[in-house]
Specification:
about 450 residues, mainly alpha, Cytochrome Bc1 Complex, Chain D, domain 2, 4 domains, flat
């Protein structure tokens, strides 16, 4: 009996040690919540939990390395902190992984402490369940779905009301005509016989007034035609649908991506080109789904955004499962929004570099309640607030001239101070009405040959 109890105690101790060792091995001695933050900050560029990105999926990685390579958590610590040194030491499993993933070298994280790595491994072993969306978020998500039926109902009510009003007006006119007919006297009937009954008779009787009215109508018609011609090609507010949905509000607004990261030639070239799909893939090679639940447009859900990312993969021939290009690409037919006429010369670099601060200062002076921080916004509007890009200004000749007349050139910067050294005083005397201020117009900004050649 004593012997049995003795063995029973030993068995319980062994089971306890086994459980504690197992829990420690599988990453449960870390903090999964802190591990989630560290994972997002350090790992998501190359890894996801449940699918391969550049590197393998990391969910259950502790158990996987034990099964595949017979290594423990200490090996993972060495691999994460300095996998290059681990491979150089001749570690068989480390070199097998390196070969398996096309010799893609993993970043080294010597800055992570053992506690940090334990927290990350705890997160990959047992990720915390996502928090349920708040009531406000649900209301926002369903706003788009309910908006369309509500708008349709309102439209129907308005149409029915207008038809009812039209019917009532017709009935009133009929009744008034009947009353007028019944109320006509013999004297009034006699007068009606003498009234003008044709346009010819009216013109002969009132020809002076008629000629005057025709002259006025001719002038108004000529003005209307001229005004119509002047607005040909002016498409302020134009915002076409694109083959791949791209929200500048998400990228430039929410994510704070610099305009010139994608439109790189705007700073050093004449034209601000449409970014190639390879530029998109710089980020979306690892971002294969939309996870910014804090911002979704009304009527759009995660599935919509994920589908648009898949269009990028189809255009570039990227296989997210194999993490490689297939070579089967598809052209993307973007709809151009801003298009200068062929007879107009406009150089982006001249405005973005030479005129950057002058344009920003001029715009903010004229719009104190709507200031800008990037020169692009002076012409293209606050594009970081647009989900669908639209033409924000007229882009007419008059619009450009007005900008040249009011934008003051910075004569104190190194280039202008030296270039206009002998011209500075002369310009101040030539344009005293501006209080000595030198505008773009004063240095040739209104010369025809600057924009037309």
């Amino acid at each position: 009996m004593i012997s049995w109890r003795k063995h029973y105690k030993k068995t319980l101790i062994a089971i306890g040690l086994l459980l504690s060792t197992s829990a420690s091995f599988y990453g449960q001695d870390g903090d999964p919540k802190n591990g989630e933050k560290l994972f997002k900050a350090n790992c998501t560029a190359c890894h996801a939990l449940d699918k391969q990105v550049i590197g393998p999926p990391l969910k259950g990685v502790v158990e996987r390395v034990k099964t595949e390579g017979g290594v423990d958590k200490d090996w993972l610590h060495k691999w994460i902190k300095d996998n290059k040194a681990l491979r150089a030491s001749g570690d068989k499993y480390a070199n097998e992984i390196f070969e398996k993933f096309n010799k893609t070298e993993m970043l080294q994280f010597p800055n992570l402490t053992d506690k940090d790595i334990d927290d990350i491994l705890a997160f990959t072993t047992n990720p915390p369940a996502p928090e349920p969306p708040k009531a406000d978020d649900k209301a926002t998500a369903t706003a788009g779905a309910t908006a369309a039926p509500a708008d349709k109902t309102t439209t129907n009510i308005v149409i029915i009301s207008l038809l009812a009003i039209a019917g009532l007006l017709v009935w009133i006119l009929v009744k008034l005509r009947q009353l007028v007919t019944l109320g006509q006297s013999e004297e009034l009937a006699g007068l009606n016989e003498t009234r003008v009954r044709s346009f010819k008779e009216m013109y002969e009787k009132f020809h002076f007034i008629g000629k005057g009215l025709l002259a006025i109508l001719a002038i108004l018609a000529a003005y209307g035609v001229w005004n119509w011609l002047m607005w040909i090609g002016v498409y302020k507010g134009y915002k076409p649908e694109q083959p791949i949905y791209f929200s500048h509000k998400i990228h430039a607004g929410e994510q704070k991506i610099d305009c010139q990261l994608c439109h790189s030639s705007a700073k050093y070239g004449k034209v601000s080109e449409i970014p190639s799909m390879n530029v998109c893939m710089n980020c979306h090679r690892t971002i294969s789904e939309y996870n910014a639940d804090h911002y979704m447009e009304p009527g759009k859900d995660k599935a919509f955004y994920d589908g648009e990312i898949q269009k990028i993969y189809a255009a570039t021939g990227w296989d997210p499962a194999k993490q490689q290009y297939t070579g089967k690409t598809q052209p993307v037919e973007w709809t151009r929004i801003h298009n200068m006429p062929d007879f107009v010369y406009f150089n982006h670099s001249q405005h973005v570099i030479a005129g950057e601060q002058a344009i920003i200062n001029s715009f903010n002076k004229k719009n104190p309640n709507n200031k800008i921080d990037v020169v692009c916004k002076a012409c293209h509007g606050k594009i970081d607030t647009m989900n669908v890009v639209q033409m924000a200004n007229d882009f007419t000749m008059g619009w450009c001239i007005e900008c040249h007349r009011t934008t003051e050139v910075d004569m104190n910067n190194g280039y202008n101070k030296e270039y206009f050294k002998n011209l500075h005083d002369k310009l101040k005397k030539q344009y005293p009405q501006d209080g000595g201020k030198i505008t773009v117009a004063a240095i040739g900004g209104l010369e025809c040959g600057k924009c037309h050649y």
